[in-house]
Amino acid sequence: MEAKTKDLWVFIETNEDGSPKKVGLELLNPGRKLADKQGGKLVAVVIGNNVAVSVEEAGKFGADQVIVVEGPEYEKYTTDAYAIALVHLCEKYAPTTVMVGATNVGRDLAPRVTARIGTGLTADCTSIDIDEESGNVAWTRPAFGGNLMATILCPDHRPQFGTVRPGVFKKPAETENKAEVIREEFHVAPEQIRTKLIDVIREAAEELVDLEGAEIIVSGGRGVGGPEGFAPVKELADALGGVVGASRAAVDAGWISHSHQVGQTGKTVGPKLYIACGISGAIQHMAGMSGSDTIVAINKDPDANIFSIADYGIVGDLFKVLPVLTAEVKKIKG
Description:
The chain is 28% helix and 23% strand. By secondary structure, the chain is α/β, with parallel strands linked by helices. It has two domains: 8-192, HUPs (Rossmann fold), CATH 3.40.50; 205-333, Rossmann fold (3-Layer(aba) Sandwich).
């Protein structure tokens, strides 16, 4: 399909209570810059039920317009309902670019939509910009197991479509902006929705790791020495009110589950505080956490690469350093 506008869309994924997932608001930040470069509007797309909070937040964080599709059939995410609705919107308004968060929902939704409207999809991006020469969006993503970065253009088909990892960008500052709200009365017939959510089975607490939304992450690497080495890492994380992360080396060794992995082949994070314990600083790991506000590195090797991006560095044995830090944190918190 051909673009009718130069507008850039950001899909705002919602929670069960109708509030926005963090990644959608994060994408309004680069979305603003790219929309301005393309000469179009920044449009937030909200699909769900009782989503007034998401509509308000999208405007507050910079969207010029918010397109809303609301109805009981969208209360729980289903591939069919959401894909049919988003295809309808794309065909009606024909934007030039669409960005979706690379969440479980986004990774399911985006390929369905792009296949139906006949355009390409660049998945799991960690950087986006406008290619100066062609004017196309330059989507950058890890390739070959994270060993190189590939920049991909979509010159022939519209809209240009990409999923972007949570945590890559910071949320924009709040504004007094009042977005224009366009309500689309579009409903999907029950017979078109081929799957139905019967029940939600929560995973074991070990697996419920919200790295992307965490403000404090304490990560362990090869230097923890084994599964038991994560005990002091977890103690510090608990004392700080944070979560436990890990390097790929620790995950590959089987010391901790993949849900804790930070890096290009894990989660991209941007917490207020990131503490790296026994992590040497492989480029793939640093690319996944370099957006953290404050980085503290603890390593026995004074030449470890992680110190090159750390705000604070402690050269020492993590098994001696972490208990002292944990005790001090507990003392401060009383």
